[in-house]
UniProtKB/TrEMBL annotation:
Transmembrane parts of this sequence: 386-403, 448-472
Sorted UniProt keywords: Membrane, Transmembrane, Transmembrane helix
Tree of life domain: Bacteria
Keyword Transmembrane part of the UniProt annotation: yes
Protein name as it appears in the record: Membrane-associated oxidoreductase
The keyword Transmembrane helix is assigned to this record: yes
């Protein structure tokens, strides 16, 4: 025997019109019967269940069901879980409903699936859901983990804008044609070793939006692919321990990485590639570290709407905070990006710092040799400095020997005319014999100066050759 509300729902189904139950109960079995074997629609109408404000009693189990009629249950309260496993439905709208849980594994929705501003006491199992249009969970509060792994969405997947995931959300392996929008959501890991947001291996045709999101726990985006941008602007990343964000091997056209100032934890960009990297060392959270090893990018800027850049000096100071174990890759990438922007001088500055830190990592001897190369020719990136050193040593040596010469000849009567400039030059330039070095016999202080000039010549020659090899290698 149907109740008055259930009879009204039957008439509304045939007419394709909405019905507000005003809090009256409606049995789940009645709804299932209408969807699976309901009466035909009235002429010119489309049959559908469009029910609002009802208390749905019993379990609405549509496992394996096939129907094209829209299912619209708004502001309804479910006594038992909603089950849509392996069903094929035209569209689903559960806005503002209260449910114990949702099981919808491998559900196929031809047009749209909406669960907006709802409350789900437990979690939602949307594993491998296939949606021909959009998937929208905006503003919904869940009580347990939400699983959207391997979902296939032909439109946008809206999982943010006030949505609360107290035990995290999983989107691993999803295929989304539009945007994956998790902006302004709140997600918490269920345990210290769990994740707050997980979308590893997801392929997104648009962008991945996480601006304004609060993630209490690890955000794992390993191997994600986004044709558009990945945006973390004002995102709060808080990891109890270890990593806060994993973007290992990610690929995207643009990465905006400007987490909120109170973020905590390590951000790992290892082996990722982005077309354009947007960040700002000046506003980087003090409690966040970053791993840049293997990261490649084409351009860098301070904001996403232009190419405003910081100076190389600012960037290098920021990188030095996280470069405990020296790796050359981040410096090479920065220099290459600066060159692409026509900032050749700053690119050379970066490469000099790279060499300086590389030599420091080689121990005391390596650091000493690096200091010599840096002071003389700037590791090959300031070659004019070698000429200045050459002129300085030549001038100093010539002045000394002019004031203290002539020296005693090795073979009296066979020596060339005394010339302090040529004598100093012969001492200074290795492997070249101008006929003066071996013609004179310095003693005492003169010999000490001669040895210093010769040593300076060998150091300059060695560093110039090393620097030239490095320059040719570029």
């Amino acid at each position: 025997m149907l109740t008055w509300t259930e009879r009204a729902l039957r008439h509304a189904f045939r007419a394709g019109t909405p019905l507000d139950a005003g809090g009256a109960p409606v049995r789940a079995a009645v709804i299932a019967e209408l969807l699976l074997a309901g009466p035909p629609a009235r002429p010119g109408r489309t049959a559908r269940v469009d029910l609002a404000g009802a208390r749905i009693t019993g379990r609405l189990d549509l496992t394996g069901a096939r129907f094209d009629a829209p299912l619209r249950l708004r502001r309804c309260t479910f006594d038992e879980p909603l089950v849509l496993d392996h069903a094929e439905i035209g569209s689903v709208n559960l806005d503002e409903c209260e449910l114990p849980s949702i099981d919808a594994e491998s559900l196929r929705v031809r047009r749209w699936f909406g669960l907006r501003h709802a409350r789900v006491a437990a979690g939602a199992w949307l594993h491998h859901i296939v949606v021909g249009g959009g998937l929208d969970l905006s503003g919904t509060t869940f009580g347990a983990e939400v699983d959207v792994q391997r979902a296939v969405v032909d439109g946008d997947a809206k999982l943010g804008h006030g949505t609360v995931y107290p035990a995290g959300v999983r989107i691993d392996g999803a295929r989304i044609a539009g945007d994956l929008n998790i902006a302004n959501a709140t997600a918490r890991a269920a345990a210290p070793d769990a994740t707050a947001i997980r979308a590893s291996g997801a392929v997104v045709g648009g962008g991945i939006w996480l601006h304004g999101t609060v993630a209490e726990g690890l955000v794992m985006l390993i191997g994600v692919r986004a044709e558009g941008a990945i945006t973390l602007q004002g995102t709060v990343l808080r990891a109890a321990e270890g990593s806060a964000l994993l973007l290992i091997e990610a690929r995207t056209a643009m990465l905006t990485l400007r987490p909120a100032p109170d973020s905590v934890g390590a951000i790992v960009l290892r082996d990722a590639h982005v077309g354009r990297l947007v960040d700002d060392p000046a506003t980087w959270p003090p409690a966040c570290t970053v791993e840049l090893a293997g990261l490649t990018y084409d351009r860098i800027s301070r904001r996403s709407d232009d190419t405003t850049a910081w100076t190389a000096r600012e960037r290098l100071a920021w990188m030095a905070r996280f470069d405990a174990a020296f790796t050359p890759g981040p410096y090479d990438q920065l220099a290459a990006a600066l060159r692409r922007d026509g900032r050749e001088g700053e690119a050379r500055q970066v490469l000099r710092v790279r060499e300086r830190r590389r030599h420091r990592a080689m121990g005391r001897l390596g650091a000493s040799w690096g200091a010599v190369q840096d002071a003389t020719i700037g590791f090959g990136y300031r070659p004019a400095r070698a000429l200045l050193w050459l002129i300085a040593v030549l001038a100093g040596g010539s002045t000394w020997f002019a004031l203290h010469g002539p020296l005693a000849p090795v073979k009296p009567g066979e020596s060339p005319t005394w010339d302090p400039l040529l004598y100093t030059l012969d001492l200074l330039v290795p492997l070249v014999d101008l006929g003066h070095e071996h013609a004179w016999n310095p003693v005492g202080a003169d010999k000490a100066v001669a040895v210093l000039v010769m040593a300076a010549g060998w150091v300059l020659a060695t560093t110039v050759v090393t620097g030239a090899g490095r320059a040719l290698g570029r």
